[in-house]
Description:
By secondary structure, the protein is an alpha+beta fold. Helix content is 45%, strand content 14%. The protein contains nine helices and eight strands. It has helices at 14-32, 36-46, 53-64, 129-139, 194-202, 214-242, 247-256, 262-290, 300-312; strands at residues 3-7, 91-100, 110-112, 117-121, 141-142, 161-168, 171-178, 190-191. The strands form three sheets. Strands 3-2-6-7 form a four-stranded antiparallel beta sheet, with no helix packed on it. Strand 6 (161-168) and strand 7 form a beta hairpin. It starts with a strand and ends with a helix.
Amino acid sequence: MSITTNTSNSITSPSDTMSAQSINHDIIKWLVNRPNWQRNLFQRIVRNEAIDKRYIEQLVDLLVVNKDIDLENPALTISELPQGSDAKECMAICSVGDLQGVNALLGGQTLRFSPTGMTIVYGDNGSGKSGYARLLKQIVGARHHEEILSNVFTNESCAQSAQINYRSGGTDQAATWSKSFNDTKFGRVHFYDEACGNDYLQNETELSYRPSVLSLLDRLIELIDKVSEEIGKRIAVEEAEQFALPKKYRKKLRQRTSYPNFPITLTHILLTSYLMPIKILIKNFRSTVEKKPASEQLTPQRRRRDSLRLQKMPKH
């Protein structure tokens, strides 16, 4: 097996460029009317900036208290969107190296490609060509993808990563690949091998044109769904706390309860909470009776006299 790479300019026709420009203008116009937190998410997607779980949690913290969220600077421009300018930029992978946890490939080696023309990579079986092919298919646009496993012959576990050096528009740049890597501009570089060919031949394919900028909106929808899920979790926690025991009883439960007598203690707490109003009612009644005038209260003599009367009443 050999790996052959061929780099060429991404050239679009004038009609395609006008169509992309029109879509990008519509997206920028649409963003202006979106909440700042959604605009910030979209800007981070376009610029491939980090949007991790902590960022989502901090965002929800601000949303639930209805706090104003400022727009992150600098503001997004149309030139940052895919095909957002008329420049026909060449995108080329120059090297892949500094591998960590990628199959059994050594971490101290670098596979280099010529930014122009054709590069042929050859080697014996088991030398790592297929491992690099799996990695490249994860980085760039490919019809077929394979899961990248770590070295199964070692017990070491580490985060999978690789250093990518590439050239875009005549400028050398670098990026770090990881399992969460999602840089849309690398989709302009394509990979083809036998597995990709089989996928074209054996699976049904719907041929359609979809501007690459729409994939950014797909990612925005995913992130908004994550924000919605986080808010839903917090609502569920809040509802659970509303039906929980009062704090003073929960504290008593923690201090006095062990597992064997848990039902007894819980019953005592519940009975106490429900019987307390009845006890208060009885106490108030007693205090009312005690406050009655002496003339209305039963003296011991009156109690004995009433009792004798009842005894002397004829029986029917």
